[in-house]
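ARCHIVE CARD
CATEGORY: sequence design from structure
SOURCE FIELD: tokenized fold
FIELD CONTENT:
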């Protein structure tokens, strides 16, 4: 993460970002701006090279403006933001945009790329002491998001289920978060049939990791459940080789939920919260589960297996049923679950399913406020009927996988949450960016960390509202 500091001047900066509101271009930049046709309209940029590089950026959404300006300055080591005309929130959000855009995952490279970002420090030029306080709060969610991005970027030969747990121990537990891990013997004793089946073909055994942030309120917790498939071959229903390497990111839901707990701990949220993370590697082996098998899950329900590449809903079903034992205020699960949600929504927003319209509306508002957008999707009676089984309580998925699989998956998950307010976010398509652009770095997005952190603050931290 960039080293962000509030300073009185930009003496050390190699480049300067100047936010501009429409029609209010500073006089000393007016000639250059006019020559470039720059008016200060939102989402526009003007680059000026004089004594030092200066980027004028039109102020719309501050996070976006900070990212857009920083994208032009990644080759510099030290840049500054002229924040004297900004509110504390605007200044902090622009710095957040800079940190998110400047992120890169280079831990495994033995030598840096020529075009790799060199940016190290970001100065906020201000004389308002409130800016530092606001940035300190904003930085916590940014740090947690970058933690999630780093997790998603790790290769599956190091980020096994056990490797995932080691990251939790190293980064999150020291912040006052309690970690409990159910290993294979405990999973077997407690009959976690879904997690065990998905993981049984791998040499890396599955586990269930539970992160608990105690908070301060004497209320039940909010529970996050994250799909943590550390690599997904598809199992016996094996995937095509094309882009299978991307399946190291099939634990992005678990990374986001862990990151959200990290964010709550960093800012000492008063709201009790848990992240329940079913971690497994779905691969092929002599012990792999098969299409046609019937599994008995933690809830006691029996499930007919149709496709071993629909494994995420099985591990989530076990984790959701386990979450009910906490008698939570709400359960929110995140998962890179289906390709069909990408067909429906592309790479712009995540699909939102659930049984509580108020919770769904709150999550959508929180997401919109920080640029992680949701679109409400249906679960119909026809979706549930598509899962009727002749030999078990329910099918895992429809044999007609070209049908609305995202809604079928949500209908399946709904069977394991009872009447508890529940929201399912299918984040396939938004967990990763194939190419960098003005607003996003290439690679993992960390989608969901800031959304969940914001949702807790907006809806659950006031005990009189819950």
């Amino acid at each position: 993460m960039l080293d962000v500091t509030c300073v009185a001047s930009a003496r050390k900066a190699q480049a300067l970002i100047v936010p501009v509101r429409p029609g209010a271009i500073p006089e000393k930049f007016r000639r250059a701006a006019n020559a470039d046709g720059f008016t200060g309209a939102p989402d526009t940029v003007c680059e000026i090279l004089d004594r030092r590089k200066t980027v004028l950026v039109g102020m719309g959404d501050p996070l976006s403006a900070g990212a857009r300006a920083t994208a032009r300055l990644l080759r510099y080591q030290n840049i500054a933001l002229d924040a004297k005309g900004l509110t504390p929130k605007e200044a902090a959000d622009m710095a957040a945009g800079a940190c998110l855009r400047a992120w890169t995952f280079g831990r495994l490279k033995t030598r840096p790329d020529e075009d790799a970002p060199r940016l190290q420090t970001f100065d906020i030029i201000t004389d308002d002491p409130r800016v530092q306080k606001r940035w300190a709060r904003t930085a916590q969610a940014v740090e947690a998001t970058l933690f999630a991005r780093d997790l998603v970027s790790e290769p599956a030969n190091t980020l096994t289920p056990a490797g995932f747990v080691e990251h939790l121990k190293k980064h999150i537990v020291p912040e006052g978060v309690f970690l409990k891990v159910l290993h294979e013997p405990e999973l077997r004793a407690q009959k976690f049939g879904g997690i065990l089946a998905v993981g049984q073909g791998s040499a890396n055994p599955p586990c269930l990791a539970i992160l608990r942030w105690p908070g301060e309120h004497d209320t039940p917790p909010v529970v996050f459940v994250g799909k943590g498939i550390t690599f997904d071959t598809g199992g016996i229903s094996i995937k095509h080789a094309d882009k299978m390497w991307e399946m190291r990111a099939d634990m992005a839901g678990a990374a986001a939920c862990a990151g959200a707990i990290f964010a709550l701990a960093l800012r000492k949220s008063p709201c009790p919260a848990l992240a329940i993370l079913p971690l497994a590697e779905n691969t092929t082996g002599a012990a792999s589960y098969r299409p046609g098998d019937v599994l008995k899950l933690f809830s006691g329900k029996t499930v007919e297996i149709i496709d071993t590449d629909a494994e995420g809903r099985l591990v989530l079903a076990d984790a959701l049923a386990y979450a009910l034992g906490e008698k939570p205020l709400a359960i929110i699960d995140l998962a890179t679950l289906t390709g069909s949600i990408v067909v429906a929504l592309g790479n712009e927003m995540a699909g939102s399913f659930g049984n509580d319209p108020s919770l769904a509306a709150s999550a959508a508002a929180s997401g919109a406020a920080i640029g992680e957008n949701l679109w409400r999707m249906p679960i119909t009676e026809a979706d549930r009927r598509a899962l009727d089984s002749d030999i078990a309580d329910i099918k895992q998925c429809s044999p007609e996988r070209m049908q609305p699989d995202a809604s079928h998956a949500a209908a399946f998950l709904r069977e394991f949450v009872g009447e508890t307010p529940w929201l399912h976010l299918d984040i396939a398509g938004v967990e990763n960016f194939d190419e960098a652009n003005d607003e996003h770095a290439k690679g993992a997005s960390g989608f969901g960390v800031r959304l969940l952190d914001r949702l807790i603050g907006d809806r659950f931290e006031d005990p009189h509202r819950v």
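CARD ANNOTATION: The mean pLDDT is 96. DSSP finds 14 helices and 20 strands in the chain.
SHELF: design records, drawer C
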